[in-house]
Amino acid sequence: MAEKNVLFSGMQPSGKPTLGNYLGAFKNWGTLQEEYNCIYCIADLHAITVRQEPSMLRKYTKELFALYLAAGLDNTKNIIYIQSNVSAHSELAWILNCYTYMGELSRMTQFKDKSQKQGKNIPTGLFNYPVLQAADILLYQTAVVPVGEDQRQHLELSRDIAIRFNNIYGDIFKIPEIYIPKAGAKIMGLQNPTKKMSKSDTDNENNVIYLLDDLKVIANKIKRSVTDSDNQIIYSDEKPGIKNLLNIYCAITNKEIKQAEKDFSGFGYGAFKEAVAEVVIEEIRPIQENFKRILADKEFIEKAIKDGAQKAECIANKTLKKVKKKVGFI
Ligand code: ATP
Ligand code: LTN
């Protein structure tokens, strides 16, 4: 039987995971796990590019591990691991830094956004962040990387770095393809639907649906979400609040937007919001139940973390060894 291609993706344990993370990222990872050899990383090295409280970082890392499993990712068929457990990431990131240009990194919109929030002292890690991401992907000879729309630019840079390296040293890295879901690729804030819903945005709790929020709180946040006043359920850039709720609804139900518009024609916003809340809650309820059960089993989690790291290391070290040889290290 032909060896399956590798799918790789990751998420930072930089806060409480959101509905945006789920719909833009790991909901889709689960649907692809039969087709690919999947490797899912918890990107804690990425998370420290902005200051983290150590005890919270540990908590979020463990919780994200449990949440991946709770959302249906299978660590017996695939690899789930914590990035800092595999030192090859840091080593390859350094090497790739030497093949990446300041100009390229300066153009990254995530860097521009995040550095603005840092005041005068911007950590260089924030600038180099996409190089570490390229290392993550390239270490595993990845064929496809499913991510939300906000990561497109980083993925394009990963491809450019890989092509540049291969042009100098031969076929070392597989060139990864980007996979962005049709629905759910960019879930916006509920209070500010012109800005992406983000787990590190802690200014206004009502703006963000956290996957581990109490289900009643989720219903209330959706009820109170900002919309316009013309009471028509139409998918339009002029109606960012309604557009966002339709995106959420369709990403969960797999319905086409056109169909949802038809189904809700004649509904008022109140009834529409209730329908959205209902599908969100029914999607999240089983994940929360699984999450509680998995997190309570400390021994299981600890063993799963160790196993994941061992399996990931074994693959990553093979690529790293080739790279070191090619660049001339003894
Ligand atoms: P941070 O706020 O710390 O930057 P984040 O919430 O943006 O975190 P990441 O850990 O950077 O999340 O991203 C994990 C995955 O979730 C990525 O694939 C990213 O594209 C996706 N993602 C994040 N936010 C959204 C969103 N609002 N809509 C769709 N996908 C998203
Ligand atoms: N930067 C990503 C998280 C991430 C990632 C990766 C995604 C780190 N390494 C490798 C895909 C592939 C983000 O979503 N902010």
SSE map:
Layout: E1 6-11, H1 19-31, E2 37-42, H2 44-47, H3 54-70, E3 79-82, H4 88-97, H5 102-106, H6 109-116, H7 124-139, E4 144-146, H8 152-169, E5 177-179, H9 215-223, H10 240-253, H11 257-263, H12 269-296, H13 298-327
Helix pairs in contact: 3-12, 4-7, 4-13, 7-8, 9-12, 10-12
The protein binds adenosine-5'-triphosphate and L-tryptophanamide.
Residues 8-12, 41, 43, 46, 133, 136-137, 145, 147, 151, 154 line the site of L-tryptophanamide (LTN).
Outline type: globular
CATH class bucket of the largest domain: Alpha Beta
When the domains are counted, the total is: 2
Unreliable spans are: none
By CATH, the superfamily of the largest domain comes out as HUPs
Tell me the CATH architecture of the largest domain. 3-Layer(aba) Sandwich
Compute the gyration radius: what is it? 20 Å
Helix content: 40-55%
**Total helical segments:** 13
Largest sheet: 3 strands, parallel
In N-to-C order, the SSE pattern is EHEHHEHHHHEHEHHHHH
What small molecules are bound in this structure? adenosine-5'-triphosphate, L-tryptophanamide
Q: In percent, how much strand structure appears in the residues? A: 5-15%
For this structure, the CATH topology of the largest domain is Rossmann fold
How many strand elements?
5
Briefly note the structural class of the backbone.
mainly alpha
- Mean pLDDT score: 95
Strand order of the largest sheet: 1-2-3
User: What distance separates the N and C termini?
Assistant: 37 Å
